[in-house]
Amino acid sequence: MIVALQALVVAGCGADDAGSGNGTRPAGANVTIRVPADAPTISAAVSLAQPGDLVLVAPGEYHESVKVDKAQITLRGESRETVVIDGRLRQPNGVVVTAPGVAVENLTVRNNTQNGVLVTGSAKAATGTPGQGGYDTGDEPVTFLRSFLVSHVTATRNGLYGIYAFSAQDGVIEHSYASGSADSGIYVGQCKPCRIVVRDNIAELNAVGYEGTNASGDMYVVGNRFVGNRVGLTTNSDHQEKLLPQQGSHVVGNLIAANQQASTPEQADGGWGIGVGIDGGSDNQVVRNRIDGNANAGLVVTATADIPPNGNQIVDNTFTANGVDVGWTFPTATQGRGNCLRGNDLATTAPAQLATTAACPAADQSPSGTWASPKPPRGIPFTEVAAPAAQPGFPNTTTGATAVPAVPALPDPAKIPLPSASLLAGGALVRATASG
């Protein structure tokens, strides 16, 4: 209870000191603050917390936008399915993290007009009004939030992104589920070097499963399942964000399949039926992914306006039953160089014979091709996307706060296998788990 919490504060500090977090405690005297037993709301519990504390939330529906602006706080639900932060379409964000070393774990965030969980060093983004597109922060200088963890979170029916790391570094998004995002289920934007790991997540029924915009340097997207979106995964450059161009991500060991689901929100640019899109991104490694049944194309390489894609390597992937397995297309004069293929299991490319003409290493200008693309169907409002199935919960909710490292351990791509074809059977939500 609150009285017990305040008793930990050194004598001479009153109740107001404890509530504001201004009191001091003996070394190692971290506590668990329970909602609603010790504080009536999640936000009230966060205001009481000090670095190293755990805010543990009981089952219930919480109608609040939670801002975690204190370092090294763990926000954890007792039950992933029944601890629900519901924005009721009245607030931009469910959880906003603006302090380093914060962990958000084991809860559901839904029905926000912009984002389910936002982790950011941008003051404009944290206010919920960064720009018309949700990520243009104008002349605001780039400021990074460093060190974060989002784990075992379900983000569904949010108006922009489910889980959004923007102007952030040194973090992990793992074991989470995103659906019904009107833009992307999981989004990483404006970081260089990122040192961010996106692993063992499921994204379905979104406009885009995962998007990495201007996300460069030690950016790892590994062992995820991006199935049943409109577009599975994109890594791209965009003038609306800073730190152009996008470079140096590792897309390894993911299952990327059947990304032409009609019952999804329709993204403004109309992407449809594509497994992987590299749009003005360079020096990306796309390795040992299983890319299956994407009606338009398994993988597309193209340019963003005046930004060419250069030096992307497509290696040891398995392509099956796509409209075209690999397509390189440059509708403007901007073309890339050094994009290459090696060791892939594929049947069709556009232009034809890319596996031979663009074998790694390749230094010449990338050729351009065309292919017949299916017409995308109309989407549905994000508020009408199907409710998610139950997802695995955090293994032990009563353990203390999670120690989030200053820099995460980065995976070894060589240890991440190709996902098994059995993961495609029946559309079951089976995880493609990454090693390393």
From TrEMBL:
Presence of keyword Cell membrane: no
Keywords in alphabetical order: Repeat
Domain of life, per lineage: Bacteria
Pfam family, one: NosD
Taxonomy of the source species: Bacteria, Bacillati, Actinomycetota, Actinomycetes, Pseudonocardiales
The protein's name: Copper-binding protein (NosD)
Location of the Periplasmic copper-binding protein NosD beta helix domain: 157-326
